[in-house]
Amino acid sequence: MKKKERYRDSIQIIADGLYKLWKNKVENLLTEILQEAEENDFENMHPQDWIRINQSNTVKAAYKGANQLSKYLQTEHKDKLYYSKENLFPREWMNHPKIKTSIDRCPAFYIILNHIHNRNRYFKGKEYKSMIAEANSFIPDIKYEKNNGGRSPIRHDYSTFLTNNAFYRDMVKRTGLSKNTIQRYLAAFYDIGFLKLLYDGKNKGRLYADGYFVEAQDNRRRKISFMKQDKQMKIGLIKLPELINTYQKKQ
């Protein structure tokens, strides 16, 4: 069995175990209500009414508890809930005490950062061509130009995304974050230099680049992120909580 399949199966085993534990607890409580009804004498209420009321309260309590657990996981363990082993971040340099302290104050940081990096990381064929065509529709033949030691720069395709309604709908669904939260983080990401604004389409959205693609030896494309270890980025990450808290909708 492949590692990916074993990993997926282990998650399913844990999920099944928790579900059965919860389900059995509810079923046992419902059974206890039936048993208690058989043992008691009811003067002011019909036994069936007593059973319906108490079983209903039990099911409602179980439903409320399940929702509370879901909300707890969403708020207290959101980073773990949306973790993927494909995630590139955090990098080792991000564990610097000052940087880590700042990032820890921004609970959606790695969720949004990894989502943006992963969303087109493995694009190929039609998906990749569609991304390039979208960028070219705003700025024809737009390319990232890498310094080449005084010679003509090496040109690479940008990794881009357009912040239109479809983008936000998809990101809200996949990350569990609000649109406003996503917008404030994107504004801060732009300010620290992680995102490059290629085109401002106003109501149509902004075209951002978060990196570029290079050709690998196996003829595959490898994505290079603009979230890189340099002085500007380190200073920006330290200021990140302040930026996120002060930004309102700018997208």
Describe the structure.
Strand 1 and strand 2 (151-156) form a beta hairpin. The model has no long low-confidence stretch (mean pLDDT 88). The protein is of the alpha+beta class and 251 residues long. The protein has 9 helices and 6 strands, in the order ααααααβββααβββα. Strands 3, 4, 5 and 6 form a 4-stranded antiparallel beta sheet that branches. 58% of the residues lie in helices and 14% in strands.
Brief synopsis:
The protein has 251 residues and is α+β, with helices and mostly antiparallel strands. It is built from 9 helices and 6 strands; from the N terminus they run ααααααβββααβββα. A hairpin with a 2-residue loop joins strand 1 (144-148) and strand 2.
Q: What is the distance, rounded to the nearest whole angstrom, between the alpha carbons of the first and last residues?
A: 45 Å
Give the H and E element order: HHHHHHEEEHHEEEH
Radius of gyration over all CA atoms, rounded? 26 Å
Task: Provide the structure class.
Answer: alpha+beta
How much of the sequence is in beta strands?
Answer: 5-15%
The parts where pLDDT drops under 50 for at least 5 residues are none
Largest sheet: 4 strands, antiparallel
Got a strand count?
A: 6
Mean pLDDT: 88
Portion of residues in helices?
A: 55-70%
**Bulk shape:** elongated
